Amino acid sequence: MQHGPAVRRRKLGAELRALRTGAGLTSGEAARLVGWHQSKVSRIETGASGVKPADVRLLLDAYGVQDARLRELLLVLAGSDEGGGRHHWWHAYRGVLPPTYRDFISLESQASAMRTLETSVVPGLLQTPEYARAVTRAAVGGLDDDADERLEALVAVRLARQDVLRVDPPLELSAVLDEAVLRREIGGPEVMARQLGRLVEAARLPQVRLQVLPFAAGEHVGITGPFVIFSFSRTSDLDVVVLDHLTSSLYLERKEDLQAYTEAFNALRIHALSPEESMDYIAALAGGA
């Protein structure tokens, strides 16, 4: 948690508090079970201080939490490097990835569903290698002396992230794409044609829902910028909205924010083309129609 955003500390603390009360324990009783002072439990639950994965494991054991996926999720939120498969691969890129990007990937790897509005580029989970390289070059090119090496590492990370759509169970992705995403020629005509073809393929996957928001829809609630909503099957209290900026990301956790962005996304889906119409529209663009 040293580099994690405060939202993760608070969400982790809130979930641990709910599990403690569900176990019928006071904070003092929980502290005695694990050999701590009561104030340490309170600081963890309020998000006032970070907590080591080993301490989270002690608390989960004390509360009798047996759900393996919930335990793993909470341990990841605490910064655990343990676990296999897709959940921790990004640690190999610690020297390249900013802390906020690592946090985004860790949430993405554990989420059960992702809803996103994209206004400029294709979602990272659906980008071809060539398209990803062009987008990343535009974002990081010239920022440091090792730009080429950093570029390739960031492209590799973006492609590795796409495994969340192929695991069992896969991440459920629902994306609304502004028409500008499809019209902006990134990487040249051939790269863009292959990218549009990739979107058509992705739209056929049962875990992916794509909708195009045409220019004809006029002004809309998402005109101020893109956003992502992560949802978790085990507990909605961990749901979070992410607003991405050039050098940082903003995490919104308040229920009012979650409700506002959920309602905004639902409104965008209503104004967008249906998934079937969207697939036909993208296919037509890919075919040069």
Automatic annotation (TrEMBL):
Residues 16-70 form the HTH cro/C1-type domain. One of its GO terms (molecular function) is DNA binding. It comes from the Bacteria. This is Helix-turn-helix domain-containing protein. The lineage of its organism: Bacteria, Bacillati, Actinomycetota, Actinomycetes, Kitasatosporales. SMART domains: HTH_XRE. It holds the Pfam family HTH_31.
